[in-house]
Amino acid sequence: MLDPNLHPYRSDLAATKLKGLVESARFVDPIPHQVSAGVAPLRKVPEPDGEQLSQALHGDVIDIYEERGGFGWGQMQSDGYVGWFDMAALSAPVLATTHKIKVLRTYAFSGPSARAAPHFLLSLGAQVALKGERENGFVTVERAGWIYESHLEPLSEMALDPVATAEQFLHAPYQWGGVESLGLDCSGLIQTAFKSAGILLPRDSYMQREIGRPVFFDQSLTGLKRGDIVCWKGHVALMTDETHILHANGYHMAVAQEPLAAAVERIGASYGSILTIRRLDE
Question: Which among 31, 143, 154, 209 has most CB atoms closer than 10 A?
Fold first, then answer.
């Protein structure tokens, strides 16, 4: 059975690309849209207070298959996640992006000044399409306004160390389904960190425990290294060195760094033992 979180199909509607693979009353082609707000929540149901499963950042492209009551049911082109989006946060047609936000967060302003009214906040990794007008160190961006140019970098620039990216989020609030600088969940932090280095990981913790290769471990928890991903059922964490992890978690309600041994004892009460430890660099 195809994972419905990664394949756009329901009993009443499905993507044409899945014809012959799933049963559905109707198959349709998508209409691509692009996030033009600072961030667009991906929800489980088409309701303003529906559970947030993930988020799409400014510039992300969404394939929309159905619109209903101001929401669109679609699939993110980047990681394939499926859900409902507020159509007010999306625009069409899709514009080719040229740059991305390289700092943890910055504002898009209404004018080329720090005193101008801010349109919205942009988080690390959000993609933009430069228009090119420059003034006072700011540059114009399609569908956003003016952004301080030193906070941007070309899409081709990649971080050398995904863990260093993750460490920038230390103390950021915990947010279920979040991938933005104002709040992330455990798998969102890891996906964001590796994406900065040009490595696109799947969205959820159960998907991330299948990536890379397994690392042998025993009760001593020795032999681990920076960048290893520690996976429990329903939770993931990133090794920052041989003995410490960084993770977004509900216990601290924030991104926190702590000894792995202490976390294993506490997390075990909720998630059980470590299922696997994954490594991507070998």
Answer: 209
Q: Are 170 and 257 in contact (CB under 8 A)?
A: yes
Cα separations in angstroms, 18 against 21, 91, 120, 174, 237: 5, 25, 37, 35, 34
104 DSSP 8-state letter: S
Contact 220, 261 (CB under 8 A): no
* Spatial contact of 273 and 265, defined as CB atoms under 8 Å apart: no
162-279 has which CATH code? 3.90.1720.10
Confidence of residue 281 (pLDDT cuts 50, 70, 90): confident
State whether CATH 2.30.30.40 applies to domain 14-91.
yes
Q: Which fold has domain 99-154?
A: SH3 type barrels. (2.30.30)
Instruction: Report the pLDDT value the prediction gives residue 255, as an integer from 0 to 100.
Output: 98
The domain spans of the chain are 14-91, 99-154, 162-279
